[in-house]
Amino acid sequence: MQEIIETLQLYLSRPFVQYALIVGVLIALCSSLLGVTLVLKRFSFVGDGLSHVAFGAMCVAQVVGLSKNMFIIMPVTIIAAILLLCFGQNAKVKGDAAIAMVSVAALAFGYLIVNLFANSPNVSGDVCSSLFGSTSILTLKPEEVWVCVGLSLLVVIFFVLFYNRIFAITFDEGFSRAVGVKAGLHNFLIAVVIAVIIVLAMNLVGSLLISALIVFPALSAMRLFNSFKKVTIASAIFSVVCTVIGLFAAILKGTPVGATIVAVDVILFAICFVIGLFKGGFKIGKAI
Amino acid sequence: MSLITVNNLTLGYNSTPILSDLNFSVEEGDYLCIVGENGSGKSTLMRTLLHLQKPLGGTIVFSNGLKQNEIGYLPQQTSIQKDFPASVYEIVLSGCQSRLGWRLFYNSSDKELARKNMERMNVLSLAKRSFRELSGGQQQRVLLARALCSTQKVLLLDEPISGLDPKVTAEMYELISNLNKEGITIIVISHDIGAALTYSKHILHLGKETFFGTKKDYLSSPLGKLFVSQSKEDK
Predict the structure, then answer these.
(1) Exposure winner among A251, B43, B69, B135, fewest CB in 10 A?
(2) Looking at domain B1-66+153-235, which of 3.30.470.30, 2.60.40.10, 1.10.630.10, 3.40.50.300 is its CATH number?
């Protein structure tokens, strides 16, 4: 035990671990806040679809040779989010089918483009690291940390300021529209924020695992708590704690960061699920 | 002068009309019941009255200073709400969202209004309970309290008793009727013609033939007689 603490202290004194912690905690916080809304609106898969779009955009950015990937990934993902969340409901192709189409198409074209035009010697290694998250979280530069801190703060501020409206629209969009609230505008803002979170989270866990970061803390919290406020707060705490534990475990054991964090999230969900059953607040059928 | 006047209204989706040339009016303090078979356009009419959907033709005029956001709405419950983690208080308070305007947070008068309406609907003791744990009747009363937070004047109720047992249904109608006596104008969509006839003042029947008039006239009209006897047979 003593040994582990000493090793952790040693790592914590290194700037790259400090950066990873800051960025990890902020991303975990942001993704869990909006995760509650996404899960409750039955949009869990939007996160997944968007992360594939972000992957496709990143491939294009790599091929084009942009040094700042963010400039191409962010707008593309935001546009995809707006299309899926704001127009997906009334379009000719219904929501879930649209997500499936867009996400696999982006994935396929991204991989294709990288293979056709790549100038890197290790294409599959690059692809694997952007799909499953790489050690890139441990190689962050200070300016990347500042971008992440800035965007995360914006997301948190947005969420706090619009908390009441987000709740109202999540619970009953029809009612909100009926009493004259501009639900469309709010959905638009939520879509933009979700896209921002997903692009940020790609650094941490890679694009295949982002959904886990969005979905699991919310679901864990929903097993245990009964009000929207408590679920939101618990979800944020769960997410941050899991990410910190996962990060340290990954550093100590040398496991992949993204997969380790998600594994911790899954274990916490299993624990919450069992506690939820014992609390007996609701039936097994309902719990799933 | 009427509170809501509907002139030559044509309703439908994607420019396919399902109802045309609809004319009726709602007076202040009225209790209008909208009946008709499934697919006759009842819910479409309600969505149009709430401006959730544009009419294909005709006009809806609000008068007596009634504003769009002063209509309380009790929608049919959605599947999302069945397992939604929200407390009764959070839901009722969200009825004040139209009062927010440019404000971001609810103030003490919003909270007081929510408390008053929970008391009115007899759900104050449930304030901290989770919505998803409540019985169907309790859930409807919570949603009614939310609707009351957004209106002093008009309530639109979309199938308020669907899925409720007979005893709770009777209580629900009693509650709605009391609100009407307090001066709130009620517009209710219902399958349940029996209750419609007990409580309402005017009837709007939608379908191949439409009827609008007082309850007494409806009962003596051929359309009304036919519909009432059919509904009795169904039971």
Answers:
(1) B135
(2) 3.40.50.300
